[in-house]
Amino acid sequence: LVAGSGAFGKVFLARRKGKPGTLRAIKMIRKQFNNSQATSEVLVLKTLDHPNLLKLYEIYTHQDYTYLVTDK
After folding, report:
1. With a threshold of 0.90, does the pTM exceed it?
2. Is residue 19's pLDDT more than 60?
3. How far apart are CA 19 and CA 51, in angstroms?
């Protein structure tokens, strides 16, 4: 299910396998738009844990895309 799209990619809603009812957002970003600053910011976001910040759970890479799994 596509939840949104923008200049850099799309956002999908997904259910976590094995945990019914747990929704996650998966942001698909084309690698051609990635840069070192954005990569650094994503890695910092992965270490943060605060109720007012988006929680980044996982980062997956593919030949053409990077996938960010976050709270919905």
Report:
1. no
2. yes
3. 21
